[in-house]
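--- STAGE predict ---
source: upstream dedup step, 1 unique chain passed
mode: sequence only
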Amino acid sequence: MIRSMTAYAAAERTTDEAPGRTVGIEIRTYNSRYLDLTLRIPPTWSALEDRLRRLVSGSVTRGRVEVKLQVREPAAADVGLEVDPDRADACHAALSALRDRYGLPDPITLSLLAGFGGVIRPIETERDPEAIWPTVQETAAAALADIQTMRTREGEFLAADISARMAAVEAAVAAIEAGSEGLPAIYRDRLQARIEALTDGLVNIDPDRIAQEAAVLADRSDITEEITRTRSHIDQLRSLMAGSEPAGRKLNFLLQELNREFNTMGSKTGKADVSHQVVTAKAELEKIREQIQNIE
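--- STAGE serialize ---
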């Protein structure tokens, strides 16, 4: 199966255990060679990180994945306040010393003390991660389902483009195979012409010896094995694209093998039309390689 690595999804659910509490999850995925998972979780709910990480990594196998968890409490959830008496004493002492040092008449008021950070602070309500986990799990599952739908939809477009380009590669392979036929006769004629040019036609060369040398050159330039392996790689590539498992890494490996085969074909055959088809095929493979960088 072909799935893109780029997508975005968000989901939101209201909890049952705390009326008015809402859980929201955003997931963004990007291209990456491996699975790179980043979670942003409020400190209050940090106990959920491991479970949420396992849940996400069980659905996404490759790419950079950013997950953001938000928990919004009802308006009346955090109304408690408390005073830090040690901090208040320290602030009062500092203000008194400053006033006495400069002989200032200003009183030290309550509003002045309360303005110092940490003197009055909210009381955190105790959170129960076990109670909220079912809602977090449900929300994450919904966001992951949307992510996979988007990645699959984008993957279908990538697969269509890759299939069209592979058809062009196959056409190039057929043209290379056809262009490499009759190499012994071609090399025989080339060798004959070169000998005649060098000897100015004054030396008679045994035709059988020319044919033998031409056959040796043709054998060295035979690309039958390369063509067979290339077609096998193309079949494997199509099989991976149609399979149910993430295929990005294997597709990338097959492309490297295909490039090697075409490089060998190009170096073995000296025919201009074959070289032209090799260049055409490699250009298509490069475009496919760029597309595969976005495949899970």
